[in-house]
Specification:
mainly alpha; 3-stranded antiparallel β-sheet; two-stranded antiparallel ribbon; about 50% helix; elongated
């Protein structure tokens, strides 16, 4: 292995594809063999550590001290010899010093073999369990140490309480793992799945499950093994561990997270009934038979809005871009699902049937300066003066005055999309921001009053 490690970097640069593929296969076989040896080593550490703890007298070791113990006064002959050897090493010649230093090292000085053996005493090594010891000794994660120990209990022979030898709990999986035919990660997934259903199925069913999953692990990767194991568990224990209503109530909800890359992040945890309703609304935009003419991506612009995926403008659905088909829908499925959800919300907002919010019909409410909106409608750039503005410099000195109700500042381009299907309410403000006049979204006579007037006046 050392020779291969030193020569492989130069040799692999000369490989062709067949040679590289064969080399990768051989290395993977070696890695699976090493993984099995890791499981064996973890079990050996745990077994020997437990046996040593059981056989050791529970008195504290002479070299182990804590803040609550006093140093031992009665030194052993080895300790005295070590002290004399250290003194002689300081006063003697170089040759004698080397000899005496070796004597001190052999007697248990720090860093010596005896000192390391004393520090490795399983009773007083300072670790609570074998997993903690493996993490410190092998420099691996605690989860990996626990995984190796747990898998060893399932696929390796064990020793009973009375000292009898017990066979492996999963013999078929153990045989496949010992021949390096199955990676240890797949073996862990299979072992966990078998332990989950051992109280819900008879031994014959568990045996069939073990044979099937082991055969799958021989031919597939751990990801596919995980999916197949989940299918077996769901088939055997269809109900599973049902969470309580109180637990579901605490976990469900819609959470607004920190924006990422300029996009708002919404995370939803929903029950089966709630996700069915959401999925029904979202999949309305994922139907491949629907013709995608105008965008629903903004959700606030309705049918007339030009969203980023509308097929009219925007990088996501530019039908006029070079090489793009006019009827090609270039949205991904997640984008379609989002468009369906936002579109359903837009329709719900437009019905007027939702509960009132502060006495107002729920709608998307945005405040913007008239000149900023006018500049966008006339396709002027932010730095171009508007011909109808008496003070163009003041109107265009800032990027925009748009502000949404819930999320604060919003770009005038987004407001322009909203204005395509919005109720424009003019509000006249004074020089100090006082409201001087508020417009209305409808005529003085609403439709039902107008019908009554027509019926009364016969026209």
């Amino acid at each position: 292995m050392d020779a291969l490690r030193s020569t492989a970097p130069a040799d692999t640069r000369l490989f062709g594809f067949p040679e590289a593929a064969d080399f990768a296969g051989r290395v993977e076989e070696i890695a699976r063999t090493v993984e099995f040896l890791q499981i064996l080593a973890a079990q050996a550490v745990e077994r020997t550590r437990r046996e040593a703890q059981a056989a050791r007298h529970p008195c504290p070791a002479p070299g182990w001290r804590t803040g609550w113990t006093e140093p031992t006064t009665s030194g052993t002959a080895d300790t005295a010899d070590a002290a004399d050897a250290a003194t002689d090493a300081d006063a003697g010649t170089d040759a004698d010093a080397g000899t005496d230093a070796d004597t001190a090292t052999a007697a248990g000085a720090p860093g010596s073999v005896a000192g390391l053996a004393e520090a490795a005493d399983p009773v007083h090594d300072g670790y609570r369990n074998a997993a903690e010891f493996l993490r410190a000794r092998l420099r691996i994660g605690i989860s990996e140490a626990r995984r190796r120990l747990t898998l060893a209990e399932s696929v390796l022979p064990q020793t009973g309480i009375t000292g009898q030898d017990l066979p492996a709990r999963h013999p078929v999986l153990a045989a496949a793992l010992s021949t390096a035919a199955v990676p240890s990660r797949s073996a862990t997934l299979i072992s966990i799945a078998l332990d989950q259903v051992r109280h819900h199925a008879d031994p014959d069913t568990i045996g069939q499950m073990e044979h099937s999953l082991t055969r799958t692990a021989l031919e597939s990767d751990p990801d596919f093994v995980h999916r197949m194991a989940k299918r077996w568990v769901d088939a055997i224990d269809q109900d599973g561990t049902e969470p309580s209503e109180e637990e579901l109530r605490h976990r469900q909800g819609a959470f607004i997270r920190t924006p990422r890359h300029g996009l708002h992040h919404l995370e939803i945890f929903a029950t089966a009934e709630q996700i069915e309703t959401l999925a029904t609304a979202m999949n309305t935009a994922a139907n491949p038979r629907l013709q995608h003419h105008t965008g629903t991506g903004t959700g606030t612009g309705g049918e007339g809005a030009q969203g980023p995926d509308s097929g009219d403008t925007g990088p996501g659905g530019d039908s006029n871009s070079e090489g793009a088909h006019p009827g090609l829908d270039r949205r991904s499925r997640p984008q379609k699902l989002l468009d369906g959800l936002v579109g359903a919300c837009s329709i719900a907002l437009a019905t007027g049937e939702l509960p009132a919010n502060g006495g107002l019909r729920p709608q998307v409410m945005v405040t913007i300066d008239y000149q900023d909106l006018l500049n966008r409608l006339q396709h002027h750039t932010p730095g171009t003066p508007n011909p109808g503005t008496t003070n163009p410099g003041a109107a265009n000195a800032r990027p925009g005055t748009g502000a949404a109700t819930f999320h604060g500042p919003i770009h005038p381009t987004a407001i322009r999309k909203i204005a395509c299907d919005a109720d424009i309410i003019p509000v006249l403000l004074g020089s100090e921001g006082r409201v001087l006049d508020i417009g209305r979204t409808t005529r003085i006579f609403p439709p039902h009053i107008r019908k009554a007037i027509i019926a009364r006046d016969q026209g």
